[in-house]
């Protein structure tokens, strides 16, 4: 440890690790001057702790990705075993972990989705989906929606609708944004927004390769469309010879009380993207699964795409063990059951706090949208808050929750409640009582 970094000298209250991190690490999605990392030292079950002895219930599964929680020993063991048996072989070699994971994904994904391109993140899974859709259809445009996040690299940020795209604009050509199924306080009915998309596709005149959506919108506010929405969207896409791509990076692997978000609506997409819960964040892993018809197209057209770490054996071993754990521990059913309890408890919070405008979601994928004015949708701050400097009221609420021992993520006026799947009713009760206190902060900040 360099001497000049000792805590006594600088007196900044940071631990040595925090000081090193602050000095040498370039933070994600942030003004570097505002990055203030907390040193974490361990985790177990649905909790994690820091170097000062604080402990939190992980009420957002970190970035909605640690679906198995922090004690998935079978996944940790599979990683260690694979690393010892041969940590890396080039994508051209077949490894048991990757082959079996491919077979497993064909089993758990809907319809005849069966051939998987492996990568290392949700972003890359979306990049591959865009490229596959363009090459397969021979068309260029991708229609996605405003309230969406699909990744950070140029292709995936270009199809992203939320403000994080703005600094990357103009992005790649041929990306078009459509309205969202956002029912709360909105003038546009979700089902009517679909007819708008139908009209858009007609006016684009057979140039659209795919419609790309999160079946349940994640970081943009946990938007669950009406039951008939996704089936009708698929119909509209197919009427215009466009594919339906479901981005299941956040909604997948039990989060919504089904294997995938699209299963909630019984829809089988043409292409599906996955990451996060796929390995339960034990190792970086993304996947893009397609139907045999789409896969067959590439028998005779070169798929010009790939990364050194595509199908990394260690990540694939983690993915296979994670899926086996979901199955063996019946975690999808558990998420559905305990998720409905969570929904009831959030509704109680809404009844007690005037600043809770809306609670919504399914399974363990839920949101609390705040409002500044009782009975109306008046956000604290603007939709651009996530790329502006400084704290918003929603950040103050999450800070109050953290002080009380609950970690909860937030995005644009909405708290994202997405705990690890093994959470129990008593963990939920404990976290809800902390949120109950934290929401006093937004109640007090309301318009009088
Ligand atoms: N798609 C969705 C729906 C996501 O929620 C995310 C990440 N939050 C991504 C894609 C990008 O995934 P990653 O951060 O692993 O690149």
What does this entry look like structurally?
This protein has 448 residues and is an alpha/beta fold. It has two domains: 38-70 and 331-444, Aspartate Aminotransferase, domain 1; 73-328, Type I PLP-dependent aspartate aminotransferase-like (Major domain) (Aspartate Aminotransferase, domain 2), CATH 3.40.640. It has 14 helices and 15 strands. Strand 14 (409-411) and strand 15 (414-417) form a beta hairpin. Helix 4 (73-86) runs antiparallel to helix 11, helix 8 (190-204) packs parallel to helix 9 and helix 13 (393-403) packs across helix 14. The termini are far apart. 4'-deoxy-4'-aminopyridoxal-5'-phosphate is lined by residues 121-123, 126, 149-151, 214, 218-219, 247, 249-250, 275.
Which labels suit this protein?
448 residues, 15 strands, seven-stranded mixed beta sheet, pyridoxal phosphate binding, 2 domains, alpha/beta, four-stranded mixed beta sheet, Aspartate Aminotransferase, domain 2, Aspartate Aminotransferase, domain 1, 14 helices, Aspartate aminotransferase family protein, globular, disordered N terminus, binds 4'-deoxy-4'-aminopyridoxal-5'-phosphate
Question: How would you summarize this macromolecular structure in one to three sentences?
Answer:
With 448 residues, the protein is of the alpha/beta class.
Overall SS class: alpha/beta
Order of helices and strands: HHEEEHHHEHEHEHEHEEEHHHEEHEEEH
| The CATH homologous superfamily of the largest domain | Type I PLP-dependent aspartate aminotransferase-like (Major domain)
Please give the CATH class of the largest domain: Alpha Beta
Number of strands: 15
- CATH topology grouping of the largest domain: Aspartate Aminotransferase, domain 2
Proportion of helical residues:
25-40%
- Low-confidence segments, ≥5 residues, pLDDT <50? 1-9
Domains (count): 2
The fraction of residues assigned to DSSP E strands is 15-25%
> Any guess at the CATH architecture of the largest domain?
3-Layer(aba) Sandwich
Shape: globular
Work out the helix count.
Answer: 14
Walk across the major sheet and give the strand order.
4-10-9-8-7-5-6
Measure the end-to-end span: 52 Å
Biggest sheet statistics: 7 strands, mixed
- Catalogue the ligands: 4'-deoxy-4'-aminopyridoxal-5'-phosphate
Question: Mean pLDDT, rounded to whole units?
Answer: 95
The rounded Rg comes to: 22 Å
